[in-house]
Design a protein that fits this description.
Blueprint (H helix, E strand, L loop, with lengths): L4 E6 L5 H9 L7 E8 L3 E2 L2 E2 L2 E6 L3 H16 L2 E9 L1 E3 L4 E9 L2 H17 L3 E7 L2 E4 L4 H8 L5
Parallel strand pairs: 1-6
Antiparallel strand pairs: 2-8, 3-4, 5-7, 5-9, 6-8, 9-10
Helix pairs in contact: 2-3, 3-4
């Protein structure tokens, strides 16, 4: 049976409780739900951040996230999966990304959520521009994000 899967890239905020309820409503096979919510920080490495602007390539971003969602569903016995990533201008305190994994047991839900977040942070086709009092600049990838994603690579 296919795993219920929701992938959305949107400008508007999302309601975490509503997304979890939609994924689990009427389901007696789910024993664990793990969620990760990424939130825009007001500072980064001591620099004040006014806002982030996230850009993506429509179509390509959804397909790439879908490919990794499919891999997560193959690697772990998931009962449902929701991934929502925002784009556009996002201010400190606002939601950026939501990953919700559901499974019969917690281990699969935790591992799948961590796998997906490592991918989203290191490899998802999004570009981030950081704004502060001095202006704005594109944010470079971090080596530790690549290392986190690499640990999931199959030998």
């Amino acid at each position: 049976m296919p795993v219920p899967l929701t992938i959305r890239i949107q400008q508007n905020d999302f309601d975490v409780a509503a997304e979890i309820a939609a994924l689990t409503r009427g389901r007696a096979d789910i024993g664990a739900v793990v969620n990760f919510i990424g939130i825009c920080r007001g500072s980064d490495d001591g620099r004040h951040v006014t806002a982030l602007t996230l850009e993506h390539y429509p179509g390509m971003a959804e397909a790439e996230i879908g490919r990794h969602a499919d891999e997560a569903c193959q690697r772990w016995p998931l009962a449902g999966l929701t991934i929502i990533h925002r784009h556009g201008r996002i201010e400190p305190g606002e939601n950026i990304v939501l990953v919700v994994t559901a499974s019969a047991h917690r281990e699969a839900a935790f591992q799948a959520a961590e796998f997906l977040m490592d991918f989203l942070k290191a490899n998802a086709p999004f570009w981030k521009r950081e704004e502060n009092a001095q202006g704005s600049a594109w944010v470079e990838a971090h080596h530790n994000d690549d290392a986190a994603a690499a640990r999931w690579t199959k030998p």
